[in-house]
């Protein structure tokens, strides 16, 4: 637990603040950036917040004993960054890492444990389309391999591997950005598959969109949508609001809502509703 606390502290101090220089070279970011660790870019959102969820799934996942000990209030944080291994004239090859944790900080009777942590490394190839951009907008393509797991033993073990393709469009003035990612799950042997039905809940695609609510880009909204496109329909919606006051230089105030399936691996079969508020270190 101590190592995780040190990692959270490092994030809150801006240790993994995006480099942005490589992303700027690729045309993916147009705003001013700061350099802290050479070769490291921001990837997904990085945040730290207190949350409250409905806890309807705890008994189902953890059993009647432990399930009743976990509380609705917990801390949720996410760390995410990427870097390049090869940078050519057009194509770039790199890797990324995202970690999302759920910490029962306020649950002193059971020693404030980390209830769940998901680890998600990726390798990818990406490029900016210059010959035939979609809708005459800056267009970026990305193909990769994604592994996601919670590092636990059975019966709480969850993991899967995916191949994905993504297309991202940018507003030239950086007012908005939108991306659609589709994936194919890499098959596993039945004896070693901890979650054979996971695509019934996560589906095969995800949309992400971000929009600046003001001209300065200090107020932003981000929306994530997923749907399994099946008759037995399951979906997920996440809405994030961020606001950077003038007296904050390195982070923004942040609020998040999640409703649906697959917020994390341990809970993916249960519908969950969560509200949270805290600070945002880097936006998507």
Provide a descriptive summary of the structure in words.
Helix content is 12%, strand content 47%. The protein is mostly beta strands. The protein has one domain: Beta Barrel (Outer membrane phospholipase (ompla), Chain C), CATH 2.40.230.10. It has a twelve-stranded antiparallel barrel. The longest helix is centred in the N-terminal third of the chain and has 12 residues. The radius of gyration is 19 Å and the shape is globular. The N terminus is likely disordered.
Write the CATH homologous superfamily. Answer: Phospholipase A1
Could you say which overall geometry the principal axes of the C-alpha atoms support? globular
Distance between termini?
27 Å
Mean pLDDT: 87
Please name the CATH topology. Outer membrane phospholipase (ompla), Chain C
Poorly predicted regions: 2-35
Q: List the strand order in the largest sheet.
A: 2-3-4-5-6-7-8-9-10-11-12-13
Alpha carbon gyration radius? 19 Å
CATH architecture term: Beta Barrel
Number of strands: 13
Helical amount: 10-25%
Classify the secondary structure makeup into a structural class. Answer: mainly beta
Topology of this structure?
Layout: H1 2-12, H2 21-26, E1 40-42, E2 46-53, H3 58-69, E3 73-87, E4 92-103, E5 114-129, E6 139-149, E7 159-170, E8 176-185, H4 199-202, E9 205-212, E10 219-227, E11 235-243, E12 252-260, E13 272-282
Antiparallel strand pairs: 1-3, 2-3, 2-13, 3-4, 4-5, 5-6, 6-7, 7-8, 8-9, 9-10, 10-11, 11-12, 12-13
């Amino acid at each position: 637990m101590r190592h995780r606390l040190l990692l959270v502290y490092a994030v809150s101090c801006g240790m993994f603040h995006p480099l942005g220089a490589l992303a700027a070279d690729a045309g993916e970011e147009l705003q001013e950036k700061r350099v802290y660790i050479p070769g490291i870019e921001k990837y997904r959102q990085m945040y730290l917040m207190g949350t409250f969820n409905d806890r309807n799934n705890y008994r189902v996942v953890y059993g009647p004993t432990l399930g009743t000990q976990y509380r609705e209030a917990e801390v949720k944080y996410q760390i995410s960054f990427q870097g390049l291994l090869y940078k050519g004239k057009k194509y770039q090859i790199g890797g990324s890492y995202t970690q999302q944790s759920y910490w029962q900080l306020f649950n002193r009777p059971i020693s404030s444990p980390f209830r769940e942590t998901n680890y998600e490394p990726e390798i990818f190839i990406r490029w900016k389309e210059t010959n035939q951009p979609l809708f005459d907008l800056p267009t970026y393509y990305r193909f990769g391999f994604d592994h996601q797991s919670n590092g636990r033993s059975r019966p709480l073990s969850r993991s899967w591997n995916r191949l994905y393709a993504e297309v991202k469009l940018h507003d030239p003035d950086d007012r908005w950005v939108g991306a659609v990612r589709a994936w194919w799950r890499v098959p596993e042997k039945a004896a070693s598959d901890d979650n054979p039905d996971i695509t019934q809940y996560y589906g095969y695609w995800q949309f992400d969109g971000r929009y600046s609510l003001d001209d300065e880009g200090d107020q932003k909204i981000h929306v994530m949508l997923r749907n399994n496109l099946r008759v037995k329909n399951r979906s997920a919606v996440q809405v994030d609001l961020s606001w950077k006051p003038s007296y904050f230089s390195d982070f923004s105030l942040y609020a998040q809502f999640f409703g649906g399936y697959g917020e994390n691996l341990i809970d993916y079969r249960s519908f969950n509703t969560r509200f949270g508020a805290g600070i945002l270190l880097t936006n998507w």
